Amino acid sequence: MQAPLGNFPHADPAPDVLDQLTAPVADAFRAWRGSVPAGQLLYVDTDPDLADTAVFAEHYGPGLLDASANCVVVAGKRGGETTLAACLVLSRSLVDVNGAVRRRLGARKASFAPRETATGETGMEYGGITPIGLPAAWPLLIDPAVVDTAWVLIGSGRRRGKLIVPGKALADLPGAELVEGLGTG
């Protein structure tokens, strides 16, 4: 199958390649109930040494910068309590951690979660964290521009491989909330 964007030699429906995904991501596809059928979400094999967004887009197609989204784990703190959440913004944007995220989490302070926390809590590899398969109790804050993008390139849970999904499918994920102003720049 041909990928709808980028220069990838082949794309597979994600449910057909569950062995290429981390356990939480594979489990999310097994339990998929979104408005977009799981078979329309695609997996493309990629070189893990090219996983960083700018390098990745240079190699696999410059148009990918406008269609790529980054998923980052954040920690909000208030009164000794820490709340973890994930944020999804287009790669050309920065996450407004100190504004939109802090307010949404009701935190006094918010920051990017340490690498060990992000990977340990998600069961995913750093550089491949994806909104699909996150812990169910977490808020998933999504910039509306991501959902409005026809096809979005996101992580697969591993540094090797990416998922190409209809943007609107991301709004159906557990804990998903559209947050205006989440992405800046």
From TrEMBL:
SUPFAM superfamilies: YbaK/ProRS associated domain. Transmembrane segments: none annotated. Gene3D superfamilies: YbaK/aminoacyl-tRNA synthetase-associated domain (3.90.960.10). CDD domains: PA2301. GO terms for molecular function: aminoacyl-tRNA deacylase activity. InterPro entries: YbaK/aa-tRNA-synt-asso_dom_sf, YbaK/aa-tRNA-synth-assoc-dom. Residues 51-173 form the YbaK/aminoacyl-tRNA synthetase-associated domain. This is YbaK/aminoacyl-tRNA synthetase-associated domain-containing protein. It comes from Streptomyces solincola.
